Amino acid sequence: MVEKRTPMQVKDAVAAVLQHAGSLASEKVPLEDSYGRILAEPLTATSAVPPFDRSPYDGYAIRSADSAGASGTSRVTFRVIDHIGAGEVSHKRLNAFEAIRIMTGAQLPEGADAVVMFEQTVEEGDTFTLRKPFEKLENVSLQGEDVAKDEVVIESGNVINPGTIALLATFGYSQPTVAKLPTVGILSTGTELLGVEDALEPGKIRNSNGPMIMAQLKRMGIACKMYGMSIDNLEESYQAVKKAAQETDCLITTGGVSVGDFDFLPAIYERLGAKVLFNKVAMRPGSVTTVAVADGRFLFGLSGNPSACFTGFELFVRPALLQMMGAQKPFVPHTTALLAEDFEKANPFTRFIRAVYDGEEVRPAGFNKSNAVSSIARGNALIVLPGGSRGFQKGDRVDVLLLGVEEGAAKWMN
Amino acid sequence: MVEKRTPMQVKDAVAAVLQHAGSLASEKVPLEDSYGRILAEPLTATSAVPPFDRSPYDGYAIRSADSAGASGTSRVTFRVIDHIGAGEVSHKRLNAFEAIRIMTGAQLPEGADAVVMFEQTVEEGDTFTLRKPFEKLENVSLQGEDVAKDEVVIESGNVINPGTIALLATFGYSQPTVAKLPTVGILSTGTELLGVEDALEPGKIRNSNGPMIMAQLKRMGIACKMYGMSIDNLEESYQAVKKAAQETDCLITTGGVSVGDFDFLPAIYERLGAKVLFNKVAMRPGSVTTVAVADGRFLFGLSGNPSACFTGFELFVRPALLQMMGAQKPFVPHTTALLAEDFEKANPFTRFIRAVYDGEEVRPAGFNKSNAVSSIARGNALIVLPGGSRGFQKGDRVDVLLLGVEEGAAKWMN
Q1: Which of A288, B35, B73, B238 gets the most CB atoms within 10 Å of its CB?
Q2: Chain A neighbors of B51, CB-CB under 8 A
Q3: Beta bridge partners of B29
Q4: Do A336 and B359 touch (CB under 8 A)?
Q5: Which listed CATH number (3.50.50.60, 3.20.20.370, 1.10.443.10, 2.40.340.10) goes with B334-407?
Q6: Is 3.90.105.10 the CATH classification of the domain at B27-47+152-179?
Q7: Phi/psi of residue B406, each to 5°?
């Protein structure tokens, strides 16, 4: 007798997972190790940016009023009384028709309210002339024009990207506070599994899901514990899962969630007293994907089929881990694109098809069954085709999940 | 007298850089360390995938011919003679109206040519009945249907993504051959620069470009040598740059490339005998970006302005490093999107505006001058507005460089 399972819609399944994602603690890390981590407190400006009125160009600081009436036929002459490099401060104050030579980024001297670029002058000895009037604050970068002191520049929950690093450095945060990384374990089930270094044997295949998930976690900046491969025996599997679940915030298993004679995970979840959020999702591949929660810890039961496993990770594990870290953007990035070829086969379940997205069009990346491996590597996106009775045609605008687009483009822009 | 420089178009400047990017050697690394590296040899299938005909479902392997004529009123009965779990091989051969219970992923037994799912049977003791005929090879995953033995599955020059890891594991590559990582140095110039831990002083700012570039490199999986900050003195700067250039494949400097009195890099390039590929690019920000080559090594002279520095890195340094590693996709990923607001100001140079891309629209990320820092952190893309006399309107379709989209999305798909 086969157990009947009621499929949950993908969107509802994702929401169910997020509802159960608790919060991890925070920690301080050195700035140079903080790239890719998630800010656990707001990034507040400890000073204005710029911290003082400064020159955006190499040129001369002047009093704008002195340039009034300047023209090609009536040039105004200024006398240069000082010279400031970036990082230096002039101790002189400008009087009428005086100027101070100033470099990009240097603080404007007392009395000056405009900057003349070198290209706008004719220099002669320690004087120069101008042929046009300058407005008050022309060519001046004003204190605080980018960021005001005490402003919250980046909210908590944002990923620390290279720009965030620049801001943290600007404000002197040498030890920013970030969300702790979750402790994640991977346990691959299946007596058919060999290690990567093993020679093939009849009926067996090498474990590809474990290393793949390790890389999916690494893409998120998260390390993991590998629990190796468990054998398909209920008691031993139960003990292995129980131990791994106790040692992690989130245990990912592959295989063992279907209705086969050695699919022990449903029984294990029951023995653990885990709450099963769903054990069937209206999606292909990966309809058997199961997510359970025990003692506040996640148990992700991904399919043993590589494509299904890959998709299950990105749809459910990724947002759960990001939410645990307090991320403001827990979902897989997505866009829409034009389908580059027909996809006639109708399916009641939402399909996720590994695909190549080129910035405009999206095309299936090849052999497309749940047990496919090659297309996972060849693609940089997943086409999303909602479940329903009709197929899809070339030129239809479809949803696309972006997973690998960051690798780069083969061509420059048109 | 200000030196006149002739601006090069961005596209030509990128091409000039790529022309000078040599090839790095390759090395073997453990599979678990290979994520994000670039394949330095084609990934060839050491076996077929699947390696044998196998069952994609939990059910019964049968001879399809035996099911001929089966119907709801004339059910055909099969006798179960063996039971195979995944990884096991049956040593029995099917005779007429015999079946073998088989689990997902298990090798098809001798004589079988179709698989019946549990849901399609009515079981009773060691027999079951069917109500429909099965075709030859129905519900069978054929040996090699995903990948044929000896097939080149992924070409050299591709980034090793999680799917590639799955393939490498499948084929037993525990030590894949990847391109060596370039040795990259960062040297920030400018007497106005303080360290991240320093207290602010009049006229000075903390060095944000160095840490930012370090993070931009880290996003590419590349570590760097920090050469600290050089003072604005020609001789000392020359010695510092010379030493750093000798120790690296690629030296990135920030600042010192403009026409200021302490902008020594043009003179240093000359003393080093470096070939300057360009020292002016028709772009905002970053028009002073300079790229030179000395002894086959790159010298990237990025602007000291944070936005310009960030953009210069992504436009020029990134593709150069990727090309050195033999990458097939050296360019920044790009797409097009609808401009979410007017951008009236005309400019003869191509503008790169740090922006927020939501999958459909793109909107400037805030304060937008070359010395801006905040918008770098707030954005996940760069809007590209080609140089020309006109402005751009809300709704115009514009080119977008994707730099940070991988962080995630705040919302699920519509």
Answers
A1: A288
A2: 200, 205
A3: none
A4: yes
A5: 2.40.340.10
A6: yes
A7: -65, -15
